[in-house]
Structures are given as structure tokens and as C-alpha cells.
Design a protein that fits this description.
Oligomer: heterodimer
Largest interface: A-B, 24 and 23 residues
Number of domains of chain B: 1
CATH class of the largest domain in chain A: Alpha Beta
Distance between the termini of chain A: 85 Å
Helix content of chain B: over 70%
Radius of gyration of chain B: 19 Å
Distance between the termini of chain B: 29 Å
CATH architecture of the largest domain in chain A: 3-Layer(aba) Sandwich
Order of helices and strands of chain B: HHHHHHHHHHH
Shape of chain A: globular
Structural class of chain A: alpha+beta
Structural class of chain B: mainly alpha
Largest sheet of chain A: 6 strands, mixed
CATH topology of the largest domain in chain A: Rossmann fold
Chain lengths: ~400, ~260
């Protein structure tokens, strides 16, 4: 069992709520509750029998809606709370859940808080002195470090908290949605630090609503729904099913925005997507007005009837410009050979200069189920052709527009 | 992790949090740490004026007499009042980092102990002429230890109760006031009518405060050693019960706060 970092078996967690506290503002019911023999209690099961294993050096993503029990799992791993039933075994030192500077005292300066937090996290003063400069540098708070924390912005506090948490020795890193705060640059920095840990073969458990990063970084994903594991497996697959579930519940366009990834059941697989010019040369940059040929190399893993290949184009800020498929073009075949190539041509493209994200997909005939979807995975850069350098158009498309005076 | 390293770590933590407690108290105040000494001195001044000029209690060197009671009493009450909130105040920490819950009430006790020892030290230095230097002084560490155990017990109890019953916080001040008048802080034990002896004997603070006076002041009635031993046993019993309540419920702190 040496290569298992966390093992949970039949994990249950019950919380008890007392209703009486809600009404205790009213004197009558307050006194009534005090003497009532059986208190109005509510047992709420946050986790209902969860089994999972995190291998050493693995990065596990946990997704799920709010209140589904994700944070409870992290708390159980770090032994802040005890399971009601079942057991959890942890091999190695767990990093603290110190995001947003828990345990900071507002009246103390950043420096004092660093030392205090260090002690809380089990570091000796000498060790702390060695780490101090690194922490301050990482948090980018050199000029403010002697200022009381109460004058810090929440972003600054978060940075300090994160900086301390990751500078403490650990084997298992727990991350609970910390990347949702802080500016873009700091988020990138945190992520690259997390990647460093991954390279050092540290175990990471990553709870996030940012499905993008889950797919990008995690090795495996758990989807927790109502205290149970709904699905476990490859990130893309789990995220895809999760998105489908969320989509049924609500409009989730904002979630999907900028979501670049791949999913599908893989009966037919798009193995490769290439962009070619009219001479058959592979390119990623095209001039406005050039022909663009896009080739999908596909492989059939399991024969399915009437698959439909499709394409769509988004701008970089996530606006769909166009999409079509072989069904529109009356090019659907009943069955495909085991492997092959399908291509489409965009003659004299009318894109304005900029970068465009191409999606490639293959669906069932009713377009309800993707076999393979490469969502906005291909970047194509369009630059102005030489004879157009003096022109400046607005928007993603160049629409032929003929002016005249009457 | 070896248990030795484990212990050392929590000792560091205890020191760190105690220092934090001390710092919090005086952060932002101009006179800062000076308040540790000023506070009991001002209280002594007020009580001395009232009990020597207004309500005339005929006691030799009343200021010294009252200070001997006030310092231990303040040690107890400020620890209890602070520890009643300590778990709730550290909720964000308790929910995020696995820590031994004991360190929170203990850090309160230790920070107040440091305050107390500083004041006691100054008291002994300033009033050295009036203090009886004798073998009795050797008892002082024993009394301080007993008070420490008692205060720690009370802090464990109250820090735990308030997590589940926040009402206690509201009634605490009244309770402490009642307790204050039932304890011979501002009056000598000799003034207590005989029918209240039982009440005095089940109150460990009676023995503690009286013992301080016995050790430090001249002309104090000597208590029977039986009373001393009874109170000491009572203190140990109270501590044991309080701590076992605390250690039974501490696992729920992170869920309730």
C-alpha cells in the first residue's frame, strides 16, 4: 500500500442541526425549547458512503455543485473533522487549507502573521526565518509586510495565505477553490507552482468549479453529487457528463465560455485535425482571402450508423461565428471505413485579422450525442494579405460591402 | 512523527499563541504593556478609597491586602472571560487546520499567567518591607500551581460550554460578580459569618486567595492544613471533570463553530 496516498472506505459524514436556535430570538419558543425533552434536530448526511483512492503522485480533481460535499472530503483528509462512519487513511503530511488567510489576525502585521501562521502549521522559528523571504517574495508584498493585515486588500491577504500554505513541507496538497480569487497574473503563478509540485511527484487533491483547469491539470476526476460519487474516471469524460447534467438544470453558457477541451464516447475518433493551404502545405497562419482546407483524420472504433462530421468557429472571446456539418451538406454516409480522412474547404476565407478557434466534431445523426468533440482546440491566425494592408475592418468577418453615391 | 517532535511542536504553538494573546490585548494602546500593571493598581486605588474612607473596614495596610486578592482574582476572571470566546473567535483556524483544541484555552491561561506573575513579582518587590520573609514563601509556587490548575480547569469548561450554549456568555459577567462577592477578595475571611463557612469551603478561590495573604502578609489567620488539602483535592477534581468534558466534546468544535 506504499503507493496509496489517501484511501477512503465507505465514508459517511453526518451533521446535526438544531432548529431551536433559529427561533431562540423569541422568548417564548426559546424557553419552550429549553425544556422540551426532544430537541428539534435534523440529521443531514453530507457524505453517504464514499470510496476512493488517491495514488501517490496523482492529481485528483473533485467537482460537483455547491453543497455536494467536496470541502467535507478535504476536511476529512486533513483530519479537521472525523467521519461518522467508515474510515479514511492518509499516508503523508497534508498541506493546510489555509486559503484566504485563516488564522490571520487583523491587528498584526504581515510579518507577524507569517510567523504566527508558521507556528500554527508546525514550523520552528529557525525554519520560518529561512522561508520568510521566499514567502514575502512569492506573495509580492515586500513593501507592505510591516503593515497591519487589516489594511490589506482581500487579494493581498489571499496571496499571503497561499504563499504560506505552499511553503510548508507536505506530501499531499489540498486546494479548495483558491484560484477563484486573485488577479490573473497571480493565478498563473499559483498554477505554475502547483505544476512544480506535480512534477515533484506530490499528491494533489484539487477542488474547483473551474472545469477548464480540472481538465487541463488533473489526472483523474471525481464528480460528487448529493454526497455520493456520481462518476469517477478520466477528466474529460467526467467533466463532459457533469456539464451535461448542469446544462439540464440551468443555462450554463457562462461555464462553457472559453472551455477548450475534448470529450465524447469515442465510437468514432477524430485522430488528427490539420489545416492546409491550396498547395497542400500544412499551416496555422493564413492570409485573408486565402483558401483554407481542414482535414480530419478519423478512426472507427465501433461501427455506428450515419455519423455526422461538424465544424464550428469561435472568436477568441468565445463568440460563435459559424458552424455547420456534413448533414447540412448532404454528405452523410451510412457507414464509414475503419479509418479515413474527411475534409472541408473554406474558399477565399473572409475572416478579418485575428485568432480563431476551430472545433471539430463527429456526432450521431440526430446530433444529440457526440462521439468525439474537439471543442475550440485549434487556433488559426489570420493576417491581412499584402494588398489589404491599408484597410482596417471591424469585427471578425469581412462582409463584401459595395458603396456608391446616387 | 516521533512523539518528542510532536510535543515540541505543540509547545512552540502554545508559546506562539500565548504571545499572540498578550499582544492582542495591548495592540494599538499607547501605553501598551504598561496596562498590565496599571490596571490592578487603579483597581486597588478605587477599592482602597471606598473601603478605607467610605465603608470603613479596619484592616492594616488595606491596599496591600486588597491587591493580594485582586491579582489572583483578575487572573481567574480575565482567563475565564477570554476563554469563553476563544474557540468561537478562532473558528476560521479551527475549520482549516487540524490543531489540538487544548492549546486555545491553555494559551489564554498562559498569557494571563504571565500577566499575573509580572504583577506578583512587582508586588513583592515594591512591598518588600511589608512582606513577611519566612519559610512560608516556599509555599508560594505550590499555591500558584494550584491556582493555575484551577484556572485551566475553568477555562476548559467555559471554552467548551460556550461553543454549544452561547447564552452562557451573557450570564457570565453576573456569575463572576456573584462569585467575586462570595470570595474574600475585598474583605478578609475572618469577617465571614459562621453559617457561610460551607459556601466558602467549597469555593477553591477562598483557599487560594487566603493562602496568598497567609504567605505574603503578616498577621493573617492561619488556615488549618486540612482545609488546604481539601481545597487542593477539590481543585484537582474540578480540573479532571472539566477537562474530561472538554476532551469529549472537542471533536465537534470544528463542526459547530
Amino acid at each position: 500500500m506504499e503507493n496509496v496516498a489517501v484511501e477512503a472506505k465507505d465514508l459517511w459524514k453526518k451533521y446535526k442541526f438544531r432548529y431551536s436556535s433559529v427561533h431562540s430570538l423569541q422568548l417564548k419558543s426559546g424557553i419552550y425549547n429549553l425544556f422540551k425533552k426532544k430537541k428539534a434536530e435534523c440529521n443531514f448526511y453530507v457524505l453517504k458512503g464514499i470510496n476512493f483512492v488517491v495514488k501517490r503522485g496523482e492529481m485528483l480533481g473533485i467537482i460537483g455543485e455547491n453543497g455536494s460535499g467536496k470541502t467535507t472530503i478535504l476536511k476529512l483528509i486533513s483530519k479537521i473533522i472525523q467521519p461518522t462512519k467508515g474510515y479514511i487513511r492518509v499516508n503523508g503530511k497534508v498541506s493546510p487549507l489555509l486559503e484566504l488567510g485563516a488564522g490571520f489576525h487583523p491587528e498584526f502585521s504581515g510579518a507577524e502573521n507569517i510567523f504566527l501562521n508558521g507556528i500554527i502549521l508546525g514550523l520552528r522559528k529557525e525554519e520560518m526565518k529561512k522561508l520568510f523571504d521566499k514567502i514575502v517574495e512569492f506573495a509580492e508584498l515586500q513593501e507592505f509586510i510591516n503593515m497591519p493585515i487589516k489594511y490589506y486588500s482581500s487579494g493581498m491577504q489571499m496571496r499571503l495565505g497561499f504563499a504560506i500554505a505552499i511553503h510548508v513541507e507536505f506530501d499531499i496538497l489540498l486546494i479548495d477553490e483558491i484560484l477563484a480569487v486573485g488577479d490573473r497574473a497571480f493565478q498563473e503563478k499559483c498554477l505554475s507552482k502547483i505544476m512544480d509540485f506535480k512534477k515533484q511527484n506530490k499528491t494533489i487533491v484539487f477542488v474547483s468549479h473551474d472545469l477548464n483547469s480540472i481538465v487541463k491539470y488533473c489526472d483523474r476526476t471525481l464528480w460528487i453529487k448529493d454526497g455520493k460519487i456520481e462518476l469517477e474516471g478520466g477528466c474529460e469524460e467526467v467533466v463532459f457528463h457533469y456539464l451535461n447534467y448542469v446544462k439540464d438544470k440551468q443555462d450554463f453558457d457562462h461555464l462553457q465560455l472559453g472551455f477548450e477541451s475534448r470529450w465524447g464516447s469515442k465510437e468514432i475518433e477524430i485522430v488528427d485535425v490539420g489545416f492546409y493551404d491550396i498547395d497542400g502545405k500544412k499551416r496555422e497562419i493564413f492570409y485573408t482571402g486565402e483558401d483554407i482546407i481542414v482535414r480530419y483524420r478519423y478512426r472507427v472504433n465501433k461501427q455506428v450508423e450515419k455519423p455526422v462530421f461538424g465544424m464550428s468557429i469561435h472568436t477568441e472571446d468565445g463568440i460563435l461565428i459559424f458552424g455547420t456539418n456534413t448533414k447540412n451538406a448532404n454528405m452523410v454516409r451510412d457507414y464509414l471505413e475503419e479509418a479515413g480522412v474527411v475534409e472541408y474547404k473554406i474558399p477565399t476565407n473572409s475572416f478579418n485579422e485575428g485568432t480563431y478557434l476551430f472545433s471539430a466534431d463527429v456526432y450521431n445523426y440526430e446530433l444529440t450525442f457526440p462521439y468525439d468533440k474537439h471543442n475550440r482546440m485549434y487556433r488559426v491566425k489570420i493576417i491581412k494579405s499584402k494588398d489589404m494592408t491599408s484597410c482596417s475592418y471591424a469585427g471578425p468577418l469581412i462582409v463584401p460591402c459595395e458603396w456608391r453615391y446616387l | 512523527m516521533g512523539s518528542k517532535k510532536f510535543l515540541r511542536q505543540y509547545f512552540d504553538l502554545l508559546i506562539g499563541l500565548s504571545v499572540k494573546e498578550l499582544k492582542i490585548k495591548f495592540k494599538g494602546a499607547c501605553l501598551g504593556f504598561l496596562w498590565t500593571i496599571l490596571n490592578p493598581l487603579l483597581m486597588m486605588l478605587v477599592l482602597s478609597i471606598i473601603f478605607t474612607k467610605v465603608v470603613r473596614i479596619n484592616i492594616e495596610k488595606y491596599p496591600l491586602f486588597v491587591l493580594c486578592g485582586l491579582l489572583p482574582w483578575n487572573f481567574l476572571t480575565s482567563s475565564i472571560i477570554r476563554s469563553a470566546n476563544i474557540i468561537i473567535e478562532n473558528a476560521s483556524l479551527i475549520k482549516k487546520v487540524p490543531l489540538p483544541m487544548e492549546i486555545f484555552p491553555l494559551s489564554v491561561v498562559f498569557s494571563n499567567l504571565i500577566n499575573f506573575l509580572i504583577c506578583m513579582g512587582l508586588l513583592v518587590i515594591f512591598f518588600a518591607f511589608h512582606i513577611e520573609i519566612s519559610v512560608k514563601l516556599l509555599l508560594l509556587p505550590v499555591i500558584i500551581l494550584l491556582q493555575l490548575i484551577f484556572t485551566a480547569g475553568m477555562c476548559f469548561l467555559f471554552s467548551c460550554i460556550t461553543v454549544f450554549f452561547r447564552d452562557v456568555n451573557n450570564i457570565l459577567n453576573i456569575l463572576l460578580m456573584l462569585w467575586f462577592y462570595l470570595t474574600p477578595v475585598i474583605y478578609p475571611l475572618e469577617m465571614v459569618p459562621e453559617k457561610f463557612y460551607i459556601l466558602c469551603s467549597i469555593n477553591p478561590m477562598t483557599m487560594i486567595i487566603h493562602s496568598y495573604r497567609e504567605v505574603l502578609l503578616k498577621n493573617t489567620l492561619l488556615l488549618s492544613p486540612y482545609f488546604f488539602i481539601f481545597s487542593a483535592l477539590l481543585i484537582v477534581a474540578i480540573f479532571t471533570i472539566s477537562y474530561s468534558i472538554f476532551s469529549h466534546y472537542k471533536q465537534f468544535f470544528s463542526e459547530v463553530v
